[in-house]
Design brief:
There is one protein chain. This protein is mainly alpha-helical. The protein has two domains: 63 residues, no CATH class; 86 residues, Orthogonal Bundle (Arc Repressor Mutant, subunit A), CATH 1.10.10. The strands form two sheets. A three-stranded antiparallel sheet has the order 3-5-4. A hairpin with a 7-residue loop joins strand 4 and strand 5.
Length: 181
């Protein structure tokens, strides 16, 4: 990979016979005058956006599913006992209305089911059905391969270091958020 100082030009492939291709994204706006924190923020945002967009395309093409539907099913896979709609909304960081719409679609396809609480009939949880678990397992295996492929430009050691550094940043941001309350 070859980059200009502003990160706009990248080299794709293994280096044999490939020309540098301009990459226009959020990071393109950065100039030498911008401070380091802004450059880092835009670099992280650009990487996240590019990976997310690629995953969206691949999910749509291979499984005819949207990323939010995949994400909702992933949450439910992690919680076989089911999750309430409000909990899904918090975990996915979207509105309750979005969760309701996605759940309605998945329920129509028999991939999830709404299950009423044994103690309060007004409350229900959403769970993956057997068909939903099978469908998600197929998608998740392929999804994991895509993520490995997209992250293949980093060694295992570089990934571990990046995970550690981003964990430090995440904790710092969480501490900063709590001080403002």
């Amino acid at each position: 990979m070859v980059r200009k100082s502003n990160g706009v030009t990248e080299h794709h492939g293994n280096g044999a016979g490939h020309d540098a291709v301009p990459v226009f994204d959020m990071e393109t706006r950065v100039t030498e005058e911008h401070h380091q924190s802004l450059k880092l923020w835009l670099r992280m945002l650009s990487c996240t956006t590019r990976i997310e967009n690629e995953i969206r395309i691949r999910l749509r093409e291979q499984f005819d599913v949207t990323l939010p539907r995949f994400d909702l099913m992933a949450q439910l896979q992690r919680h076989p006992e089911g999750l309430r709609m409000g909990e899904l909304s918090k975990r996915m960081m979207v509105t309750g209305g979005n969760i309701t719409g996605i759940t309605d679609q998945l329920e129509e396809e028999k991939l999830v089911a709404r299950v009423h609480s044994a103690t309060d009939r007004r409350v229900y949880s959403v769970k993956l059905t057997a068909a939903g678990r099978r469908a998600f397992a197929k998608m998740a295996a392929v999804h994991e391969g895509w993520i490995d492929e997209l992250m293949d430009g980093l060694s295992a050691q570089e990934k571990a270091k990046l995970i550690h550094m981003l964990s430090q940043l995440k904790n710092h941001v969480a501490d900063t958020e709590h001080h403002k309350e």
